[in-house]
Amino acid sequence: xxxxxxxxxxxxxxxxxxxxxxxxxxxxxxxxxxxxxxxxxxxxxxxxxxxxxxxxxxxxxxxxxxxxxxxxxxxxxxxxxxxxxxxxxxxxxxxxxxxxxxxxxxxxxxxxxxxxxxxxxxxxxxxxxxxxxxxxxxxxxxxxxxxxxxxxxxxxxxxxxxxxx
Length: 165
Hints:
The protein is 30% helix and 21% strand. By secondary structure, it is α+β, with helices and mostly antiparallel strands.
């Protein structure tokens, strides 16, 4: 089970908001060059001691509490994102959303951000490789032990897909 499935519901809400602001494909394509474009991602927290997301057969409603991070861990992580100028969403399950400009993301994570044809964002490595998720080793030192991953979820396969008029 991938993390993308865990956050499908939250992403559906984000894509709805995105669809209402992105009205033409020409405008969307120009967003890749705008440092002040607004981007959102999910921050997936490490569970409390003794649990591993990697070894999990799947996180369900029945097992969610076992994988929840401590309140202090969440607070420290939220405070770090707030101090860097990000807006922070509510903590739900094992994650919360962060919203900032493309420039905010690029400064914090040291990677370029690219808008894909499917109207989702990806991180771009120095060698040009794109990916939706940053793993622990790619995170800033101050949150590396607190955060499991930062994810730009993939858009759902349903709903509007053609934004040109």
